[in-house]
Amino acid sequence: MSANGSGIGASVKRKEDTRFLTGRGRYTDDINLPGQLYGYILRSPVAHADIGGIDTSAAAAAPGVHAIFTGSDMEGVGGIPTGWLIHSKDGEPMVEPGHPALALGKVRYVGDCVAIVVAETREQAKEAANLIDVDYQELPAVASIEAAEAEGAAQVFDEAPGNVCYDWEVGDRAATDAAFDEATHVVSIDVVNNRLIPNAIEPRAAIANYDPATGDYTLYTTSQNPHLIRLLLGAFVLGLPEHKLRIVAPDVGGGFGSKIPHYAEEAILTWTAGQLGRPVKWTCERIDAFKSDTHGRDHISTARLALDADGKFLGLHVSTKANLGAYLSTFATCVPTYLYGILFAGPYTTPAVYCEVKSFFTNTVPVDALRGAGRPEATYLLERLVEKAAVELGMDRVEIRRKNFIREFPYQTPVALQYDQGDYDATLDLALKASDWAGFEARRAESAARGKCRGIGISTFIEACGIAPSAVVGSLGARAGLYESGSVRVHPTGSVSVFTGTHSHGQGHETTFAQIVSDMLGVDFEAVDVVHGDSAKIPFGMGTYGSRSLAVGGTAIYLAVEKVIEKGKKIAAHLLEASVEDIEFENGSFTVAGTDRSKSLGEVALTAYVPHNYPEGLEPGLEETAFYDPLNFTFPAGTHVAEVEVDPETGEVEVVAVTGADDVGRIINPMIVDGQLHGGLAHGIGQALLEECLYQDDGQLQTGSYLDYTMPRAADLPSFNINHNTTLCTHNPLGVKGVGEVGSIGVPPAVINAVIDALRPLGVNDMAMPATSQKVWQAIQQAQG
Amino acid sequence: MPTVTMTVNGMERSGNVEGRTLLVEFLREHLGLTGTHVGCDTSQCGACVVHVNGTSVKSCTSLAAQADGAEVTTIEGLANGSDLHPMQEAFREHHGLQCGFCTPGMVMSAVDLANQNSDPSEHEVREWLEGNLCRCTGYHNIVKAVQAGAKAMGGGS
Q1: pLDDT tens-digit profile of B18-42?
Q2: Which residue of A12, A21, A24, A127 is the best one to mutate when testing the B interface, meaning the one whose CB has the most B CBs within 10 A?
Q3: What does CATH list as the number for A31-140+202-253+259-290?
Q4: Can you tell me the ipTM of this complex?
């Protein structure tokens, strides 16, 4: 394997770019089917109400309307399922209320689906929906964790007393308590992890079709995981057999976790198409996306760190309350548990760790995975706490981290994970050098001379990606496996189609996976195409999330290529009249070891499909599939350093420098990897400084448009200083780990630590995300008395 | 319904539209030019940027009727046959796109900047892109691409 040309390690320009740059991408809303009708989803304008009745008569008589369906029409159709069963501390299963696709008797959040209107045009459907008269008998709502747990709070579900879904724990509580008994120092922190709205720039959309002649359903949908949608929609909601349900996720304009879940609209559209026997298309307007795409984060936590006299960590105790929203979305329940609590060893040797998480239903949009999913929340808490410990103990904040680093691998953490490999000193050293940490005080003085407060912050972190193995996650409550599939089809004249169960919606799989196959098979990069996103074309796969695609999906492809090579050796041995054991494969040629006698991959492929002279008993064809179930998570790690300048007169925070030193395992395409890091960093800086989803007490969404919800824009961000130090994952053959979520996990605490560092001379010792100018200014005013 | 006629990517195109029909609807739904995208409803995201008489315009905030008689260029009209426009080439070269959804608007907006300023600074590019949202790239490579594309255009499209 080499970094030359288009192979592994080369910054190959992307195959997908030409179509995107010329307007020839094919996103769901670009697809139109003959005879299609348009669906408009009527959503609840109130957070919590009994539905006294729905009068659709005026709407049904409106021009162009073909049909209107409400919850009672879909009664009997299965509800929207959730994918992970969590057990509480007492062993009881979580409360798992039903989630009807169209609200039945009650609405539980602003945005809840109430009816679908189907008409000839989009405008007619929307106008008719305005004529539907819903008798909302409003109920008190709970729009926050604090409201949900208050004495006498309104109940989102009767079967969930106190609005609690589960009360979960991980780690050894007694051992952690004992660690605190021995501690010289105890440092505590309270943090809120602000609720975010994902905001992929492509709004969700779907177009469903039903062919009465064959009984086949097809759903085009904006999904990160078409087979997962097929499984949930087919098996759990509509009761359709897989061979009659095709899910196509074509070009998808960003996901960030928000296009993982199986959404009610997908079920409503598909069912409606079946009722009408015509295609039905729906495109979410942005204003509806704010109140119907799953949200992310939303934790309230308190944590304590026990240290000995030298600053060595002895124990960590975390108590978190998490907001799940009004219904359990697909991965909602595992995000604040198995993607969160198990991260609390971080890169540190803390011998005793305990984390408890109580999750609540509220009258808000369902909460699910968002770039990082659980791991940003854990990292933020841990790195804020470690920073605070350094300040309170009077220790250097770099040295306190270094003193506690894990250095021997494999390392078994006290919270389930076993890290296979890493070098946390190397990324720390790299980040300090690349950020000129040592020269910071001079820069601080220069800023001070201009009346600005400069601060620098650091975060050293690990993440767990490629969640696996299936047997383990199954024992923890996952209702699906977490393997991945890959197929490699060598065509008769030697070009190659690769089929993956992962889905690319910006990550560049069509390029990266082609590089792997091209490199391994010695065929031209241009002769390899990657197919994804269509359940009728690809083997069953679990899709893309949790930075899993390369580590899990890439490995499946790697293993399929190995099978192709093994079969090719048998064919080549026959053609060369040699023993299979003597055949070597390199640079696209099968060669008899120690000779110059060889056959090219193309010759072998042609022989496989025109098997006139062929090994006895061997099947024709050259196409192999592999399913890969990882042995373990992968553990990317790194150090992020943020430098900010605060204007004390206005409270405005400018991010002047961000340095990343990351270990993401082997890098297939450095250009794409750095692009993933940039995007994650922007998302993380957005959370730290700009983004916050706010609800009124009555459950009305206050930040319901781009005018109210602050997205990071180009002028809000600096260019990023990206550095790499690589250790290889030990349990997959490519040595890869994952990169898509690194920035959003690592950088938020570095930014907030920097803001606090800048403001500490003014007496400010705490700062909540997002550190808006208003919040910073108020903190300065308060501190100055 | 009134008829509008405009030159789109060098070809005269006509259609009957409602008074309320937006330019982006006319392009996408009447003409099938789906390269221009709709990412929001408040004129914030910029995925819908096209050129009207050589200037970048948010086609979600313009009526089709307003473009009657105008010269409209969409992302589909930028390349010269199979040769990418220098700005498209710069986005490819500098990995200035990931999912591709904001890309048409970014490129069209960038070309307008480059027509006015053949050597924009990083700061000038970032300020210019105020009306274009991207969730994938963190803007880092978009900024590099716009600077490189502007230079390659040499002060003209």
Answers
A1: 999 999 999 999 999 999 999 999 9
A2: A21
A3: 3.90.1170.50
A4: 0.98
